[in-house]
Amino acid sequence: MRPIQKSKKLDDVCYDIRGPVLEKARQMEEEGHKIIKLNIGNLATFGFDAPDEIVQDMIRNMSNASGYTDSKGLFAPRKAVMQYTQEKKIAGVTIDDIYLGNGASELIVMSMNALLNSGDEVLVPSPDYPLWTAAVSLSGGRPVHYVCDEQADWFPDIADIKSKINSNTRAIVVINPNNPTGALYPVELLQQIVELARQHQLIVFADEIYDKVLYDGATHTSLASLADDVLFITFNGLSKNYRACGYRAGWMIVSGEKRHAKDYIEGLNMLASMRLCSNVPGQFAIQTALGGYQSINDLIGPGGRLLRQRDLAHKLLTDIPGVTCVKPKSALYMFPRLDPKMYPIADDQEFAYQLLAEESVLIVQGTGFNCPTTDHFRVVFLPNSDDLTVAIGRIAHFLEGYRRRVGIAA
């Protein structure tokens, strides 16, 4: 029989966070190996539970969750999101500007499907959260990666962004707080990005899913709060700030210069209607989460578990010869660099395979985040301190052996 081929639209799509190396890890688990997984920010796996008040509110409302809702979502949680935009100083947001989704991921894909035609370009950071690159490609567009500079705390390179804007450029994606680097962008830099969007009439897609996961007293500024003459699409949700990944409760906010975007917004409405609505139990969690006790502050503040584990992971990694890492100011990840002179890695996916096979530690290689070089990898610092110490100790042991194999002394 004739082979059944996958769509050509998938040729430029990858999601290595759940990619081939993970498949190898699953096979090893089936064979009895215990794998330490540093590959994905799935908080519940590591004992970070959703706040009990959210759980209880979902349970109480379950009997009301059987039917479809409005395609954009229930009124009460959308109103709670609207009030949150007011806290974030995003002006002019109404209930109709808010779309609830099955996590921010669904809405990201929806926002690209509604916008892009063949040949349209979207500026996407490198490294990026790979869903963004995939969403642009699947929607018929062309992702164009702009540089985030490791030597400048992983901040976007404004000159590089400018050099990549042309007549086909429709939008720019900004991931702040950043996954995978943990960078948090200052207001001055965000203002420069807004000015570029203003000059070139670009839409700004702001991924702010980690906006409460901040360390050392840092504060987050929403891009959409900085202007009302640029169109902003802002994404957020319960997955990270409220440790509720499996609830698939996210939202998308349209703000700023909406007058000239009526046709695009009609496209968003059409796609929202086609998927009927997002899951209703998850919708019921939103109002309680946003209006309740913000327990994330207990995890990121002095003595908090996330802060302790960030500091521990950073020290353990940077104590390894030839490993450097910009200390993250936000989010749940580190993106360490391996000195190419000490670790001449030609294929970083193969490097991740070898680490998994020899040490039973699962990471994601840097190219999985559209990093142009093979000298980075991402780790999550979610395991408890003992497991984190064991995991990074195994990475150190593997790298020691790697240096020996290539004939380089520490």
Write a structural description:
This protein has helices at residues 20-30, 52-61, 75-87, 103-113, 130-138, 158-163, 187-200, 262-274, 280-291, 296-300, 305-318, 348-359, 385-405; strands spanning 36-37, 98-102, 121-126, 142-149, 155-156, 169-175, 203-207, 231-237, 249-256, 323-324, 333-334, 337-338, 361-362, 364-365, 377-380. It contains 13 helices and 15 strands. It has 410 residues and is α/β, with parallel strands linked by helices. The strands form four sheets. The protein has an eight-stranded mixed beta sheet with strand order 2-9-8-7-6-3-4-5. Strand 3 (121-126), helix 5 and strand 4 form a beta-alpha-beta unit.
What labels would you give this structure?
410 residues; alpha/beta; 8-stranded mixed sheet; 3-stranded antiparallel sheet; 13 helices; 15 strands; 16% strand; globular
Task: Give a brief rundown of this model.
With 410 residues, the protein is of the alpha/beta class.
Quickly give the structural class.
Answer: alpha/beta
- The outline comes out as globular
Q: Helix and strand succession?
A: HEHHEHEHEEHEHEEEHHHHEEEHEEEH
Biggest sheet: strand arrangement: 2-9-8-7-6-3-4-5
* Residue fraction in strands: 15-25%
Task: Compute the number of strand runs.
Answer: 15
Mean pLDDT: 93
CA(first)-CA(last) distance: 56 Å
Assign a percent range to the helix content: 25-40%
| Poorly predicted runs of 5 or more residues | none
Rg, alpha carbons: 21 Å
The largest β sheet comes out as: 8 strands, mixed
How many helical elements?
A: 13
Structural topology:
Elements: H1 20-30, E1 36-37, H2 52-61, H3 75-87, E2 98-102, H4 103-113, E3 121-126, H5 130-138, E4 142-149, E5 155-156, H6 158-163, E6 169-175, H7 187-200, E7 203-207, E8 231-237, E9 249-256, H8 262-274, H9 280-291, H10 296-300, H11 305-318, E10 323-324, E11 333-334, E12 337-338, H12 348-359, E13 361-362, E14 364-365, E15 377-380, H13 385-405
Parallel strand pairs: 1-13, 3-4, 3-6, 6-7, 7-8
Antiparallel strand pairs: 2-9, 4-5, 8-9, 10-12, 11-15, 14-15
